Structure formats: structure tokens, C-alpha cells
Amino acid sequence: DADVTQTPRNRITKTGKRIMLECSQTKGHDRMYWYRQDPGLGLRLIYYSFDVKDINKGEISDGYSVSRQAQAKFSLSLESAIPNQTALYFCATSAGLEAFFGQGTRLTVV
Amino acid sequence: RKEVEQDPGPFNVPEGATVAFNCTYSNSASQSFFWYRQDCRKEPKLLMSVYSSGNEDGRFTAQLNRASQYISLLIRDSKLSDSATYLCVVITGTGNQFYFGTGTSLTVIP
Question: Which residues in chain A are contacts of B36 at CB distance < 8 A?
């Protein structure tokens, strides 16, 4: 099993719908991150959390929210999905200088 | 200005060729530097760390020039399996923020 697991792996949703992407990890890391990846733009940080009581906005947090339910779980929500949120989303964890990524969620908003 | 800038390529090289990728970073206070590899539709994974003294791992050599704020990756004797996107990563700030370049695409041709 993967150390960092994202669900769902693929999702197609309609404009205006609320959607949640989930991430769980078995690495015991305190730090968790959500990124989106778009062609030509690379990985951009949406939100990050350094422990259960710590939530921080990243570079592109507008239109997103997160919840750190436990050390091992960090979920990303799109309250009202729009087409330009179509992207590949990655969750990552870190305990120091290396980031470990989940396998990604490919989200399409139609 | 972006924290990390990379030439996106693509680089198309024959097997056995030597290829070099470059990356610049904007924050002189950045502390740690890495190259990650991302295969098509997969998650990024750590390839190697980058030090001022250079870091060599088999056919791969990474180098940091702090004065020029420049990071490089050299791949010798390219293999078909080296085809991937290579991401330059810089860690900056008291919170150990990861900043990713947009990635450089490499295709090794038979």
C-alpha cells in the first residue's frame, strides 16, 4: 500500500458542485500539503498544515478549503467547483527536507 | 518573480547523450535544494539532493552555485528510462516551504 493515499484518483464533476478530495498517510509526518499541477505552471501550493491545529494558505487558496481531521488525514474541498479548477491535485507529506507525494487526483470540472 | 525558474524544454536526446538542465532561484536565503523526477501521470519523487560541493549518483550529477543562485543536473549516457520531467525544488523560509520549478521535460530517443 502507498504511504500517501489520495481518493478519488479520478473525478468528473459539474460546475457549482461541492467536492472533497481526501488524503491519508501512514508515514507519521506532521506536515501535509495540497498542490495542484497544471501544464506549464508546475506545482502550486494550495494549503499546508504543520500539525492538526495548524492550517495555512498557500499561493492559490481562493476557492478551496481544507480540514486536518487527524495527523494522518488532510482533506481538500472545492466549495463550488469551476472549470478552471480542472487540474491534477497532489497531497504530500514531509517530516523535514523530503516531500512524499500521493498518486494524485485528476479532477475535471465540466 | 517566481521562486524557482526552469527551462521547460522539451529536451529530445538520443540514447547515450549527455544532457544538462538548469534552474535558478530568487531567494538568496534558500536553504536546501533538490531534483525530483516525475514520470508521466505519476507523482514526483526525490531524485537527489544538491550541494555546493556537488553530488554524484551514478550517471547523475547535481551542482549548486549559491553566488549565482543556480542549480544544475547533468545526466550522462542517457537511457530510455530517463525519459521524464525533472523538477527543481528549493526549500525556503522558517517553515521549510517547498518551491517547485515548472519542470523540464526529457525524452530519450532510441
Answer: 99
CA distance B100 to chain A (A): 6
Cα(A58)–Cα(A61) distance, rounded to whole angstroms? 6
Alpha-carbon gap: B87 to the closest alpha carbon of chain A (Å): 9
What pLDDT, in 10s, does the model give residues A40-83? 888 999 999 999 999 999 989 999 999 999 999 999 999 999 99
Alpha carbons A51 and A29: distance in angstroms, whole number: 9
pLDDT in tens, B51-84: 888 899 999 999 999 999 999 999 999 999 999 9
Beta strands in chain A (DSSP E): 4-7, 10-13, 19-25, 31-38, 42-51, 54-57, 64-70, 73-78, 87-94, 99-101, 105-109
Chain B residue with minimal CA distance to A34?
Answer: B98
Say whether A104 and B45 touch across the interface (CB within 8 A): no
| Cβ proximity of B51 and A97 under 8 Å | no
